[in-house]
Design brief:
By secondary structure, the chain is α/β, with parallel strands linked by helices. It has one domain (about 5-190, about 195-255): Alpha-Beta Complex (Spore Coat Polysaccharide Biosynthesis Protein SpsA, Chain A). The chain is built from ten helices and eleven strands. Strands 1, 4, 5, 6, 7, 8, 9, 10 and 11 form a nine-stranded mixed sheet that branches. Strands 2-3 form a two-stranded antiparallel ribbon. Helix 2 (about 55-60) links the parallel strand 4 and strand 5 (about 65-70).
Length: about 260
Amino acid sequence: MKIIGIIPARMAASRFPGKPLKLIKGKPMIEHVFERAKMYKKWSTLSVATCDKEIEKFSKSKNYKCIMTSKQHTRCLDRVFEASNKLKEKPNNNDIIVCVQGDEPLLYPKMIKAVVDPLIKNKKISSTVLAMDIIHYSQFINPDIVKIVHDLEGKVLFTSRSPIPYSKKLLKTMNAKRIGGIFAFRYFFLKKYFNLKPSPLEINESCDINRICDNGGGIYAASVKYRPYFSVDTIADLRLVNKSMSNDVLWKKYNF
């Protein structure tokens, strides 16, 4: 069984155009993501997937594997599926495809392990998404942060940019969680996802995972405890990551 990592990135992000190549501590964001992702030791292969020549050029300058994809994709998982089919060694049905979004410069290898391990240990699980505890009210109400609700077995019910589950205050007993931009799929399940039409919840919430929730479900939350972890959706997020990176342990390992 192969474990295949794909980092989707594009320059035309609606909220922050050009963000994959924006600098964080002097290095483009996509470099932070790749260098941190490759610290996970079980990859069969790790590649960038993009439709932009600028990102391809940078990837080649760093000797990162890079797969060119269609410009038509608006969802990262659609891009990941196309890229998985362009690998020299085609994935088998039960191979694990991991999407590490290109705007997660503070990811840790343990987060990748968290989404991959359930698929290795349990043949009945075909898909997972990183789910991190929310401890700050500002994150709970932030529409740029996608919240997640799952059942008692961890199966995701739906995701939303609204604060869910509903509460006037953020309480520990709510078990409030946010999506982290790391997903794992068995190849056959990712193919099933790709062949489904974009769904109402997916479109309304602008979140890929809801395509699965709208079509019978089957994706599970890979829950992790809170740690400083900020996706980059805006210039303000970029500033926050720049500040946080100063105290980051992994940063020191590839800052050369």
